[in-house]
Specification:
Helices cover 0% and strands 70% of the residues. It is mostly beta strands.
């Protein structure tokens, strides 16, 4: 599924560069570990991949609740160890505190 733009409110739990498993080199993309509570109160974490970004752009927001505006977002479901998982990839993101 593709969305042109979404706005999510999350807690930034971690930020790291995306590493290519074969070459062990940084890809130029980053991964943000984001946490939020669903409607029943359960805490959920998701990893959001953002293209052409740097860790320093988002590391100042660690452990903060922010509005994350994601643009050109692709959602892809897949199975991981027999469990449903969701890949979230955005072409760009901006933080609105």
């Amino acid at each position: 599924m593709f969305c042109q733009e979404i706005l999510v409110t999350v807690s930034v739990l971690g930020v790291s560069p995306e590493i290519d498993f074969e070459t062990k080199q940084a890809t130029g993309n980053i991964k943000i570990d984001a946490g939020f509570r669903n409607s029943s109160g359960k805490h959920i974490t998701r990893t959001i991949k953002i293209a052409n970004s740097t860790v320093s752009e988002y590391s100042t927001y660690l452990d903060e609740k922010v509005n994350l505006r994601l643009e050109r977002v692709t959602f892809s479901p897949y199975l991981s160890n027999g469990r449903a998982a969701l890949s979230i990839k955005a072409e760009s993101a901006t933080v609105e505190v």
